[in-house]
Amino acid sequence: MRWRPGPITLILASAALVPLVDLALPESLRISEAVRGVFLYAILALGLNVVTGYAGLLNLGIAAFMAIGAYAFAILTCEIYPFQIGFWPALMLTIPIGALAGFLLGAPTLRLRGDYLAIVTLGFGEIVQDVLKNLDTITKGTQGINPLPGPSFGGEQWTSSNELGWYYLLFALLVIVVMAVRNLERSRLGRAWFSIRQDELASRSMGIRVERVKMLAFSTAAAIAALAGGISASVLSSTGEPSNYDFQVSMLALCIIIVGGIGGIAGVLLGALVMIGLNSIVLVKATAALAAMGIGGQGNVLLSPNNWKYLIFGLALVLAVRLKPDGLLPPRIERSIR
Amino acid sequence: MQDYEVFVQQLITGLSNGMIIALIALGYTMVYGIIELINFAHGDVFMLGAFLALTLLGAFGMEAWSPAWKFAGVIMMLGGSALFCGGLNWTLDRVAYRSLRKASKLSLLVSAIGCSFICTNLGLFWGGLPMGVFAGGVSAAAPKDFPQITPQTNLLGESAIRITQADVMVFFVTIPLMIGLVLLVNRSRLGRAMRAVAQDSTAAELMGIPVDRVIGMTFFIGGALGGFASVVYSLYNNTIGFQMGYRAGMDAFTAAVLGGIGSLPGAVLGGLTIGCVRAMSDQYLESRWTNTIVFGILVLILIFRPSGLLGSTRREKV
After folding, report:
1. Residues of B in contact with A325 (CB under 8 A)
2. Which CATH number applies to B17-127+167-304: 3.40.50, 1.10.3470, 1.20.1300, 1.20.1740?
3. pTM, entire model
């Protein structure tokens, strides 16, 4: 059979070419830095997709696990703490730490019905953020923990100026995560997830251990989100303030998977491109362009495109659910029954 | 101030705020009771009601009115915001929820979250109106001062404990509304229809009850209660902002769940509890931990007693 590239391959391949295109563009139009944001959110959304897309459990606090990953990475590497285990070991450790956090939240809550579980995860997100802000002896409160190291290749320590390096490092991580979830969704566990999403009672009577399978979905999602948090802290060389991991981040991830196509990897990648592209490329560039023309700024609230963000995301959610419940790039159906 | 006086003062604040939370919680619990939707946008509808009240206050220049006229002004704001919030909530149901009645509960919830975002953004734009009460609309996102138009005399005379007209107003507005709501739900034809739809909407439809219209009315009444609450909240707390809907909504939702979602007395009990917990935590612990405590209560209640204090223990149907 002849090999034809699927949508996932096409999206990833075109993403790999962005820095080359950037070289041809003038400074103000370059987007590779913003595309790094797309990669980060794509990783986060792939994690959310495991729990909400595959297993059908709505999680409104995925940003909390991102925060846990970011702070775990920071505490393990920053020079003001005794550990300082370096970039790669710390990044690898964010995965089990995230999974453990997911397990601790999931263990008592997964028996709850769908909408109650959603609210518990939402509350958990708020609590994590408040705790990070208030335990300022450990977390440095609103200043965030910094500076954080990047990786070092050949004895050379990366700094934030190594833009091309960071771009391809994030790209490589995204590819690894894509491959991992792709294998997961085709595994026995993945089929169990699809099954409990369709009908929990029927799955239980077919011998699927529903609690265990749900728990694994929850922990996997948390682990991937924590990885996204760890790498984002390293890119910024700081955890940033705790409100960088607020409800809005969770909502952005949710928008991505719902607009893109819940339950499918290609859809999530496309969703990340559309939503984050809108959020941190189109709106930001439009605001800058208007400011350069002397419009916007402090004067009229309507003239700053950034102020339309919530309206656009809200409309995207309402319209997506109403008009395209399967998203822009729905997962192929046979996958769920294979 | 003596120790006990501090305690009583906090109790008064807690109960007043608790009554306001309870009024918002009633809107959540009614909608949840009838279509099992956590109406995420409810808190933002409440927020827009407060913005409408401030707009009315500014447009008519109520600050300069004589005390008797100010009283009329408060009535006008209450009526205006209630109608507006009720209508807005009804519209949300009509536009964003009605077509999803047969869809999964999660898509309904996602649609509600979308509505909440849209309303938040409208609040941001509203704050940019070029009016004196919005500080000329220069920094739209900044919190707005809501003028104190109720007198601030202490009704207890020289006592260290202060009860002002604002405290009294809170109870004068909220208690009759709650009594009215209970009468409406338990005695009226509409109330009977609402209870029937909540119990079994298919059976209700077969009995000739216009289910969609009854659900729409539930949204209207719940929204209107939020509208009343928004005016009382603004007059009592004197600051409003476009992001207050989220926080107020979470407090009220916690109250509804704590009392047992779907139960009207439960929502009031839950609201009073949350109001007092907030006030006590502000006073005796650190106020920066207050939100954590409220969310902690929410999570613990959902885990250990999801039916709440007064809710019925009904198992989820399969």
Report:
1. 103, 107
2. 1.10.3470
3. 0.88
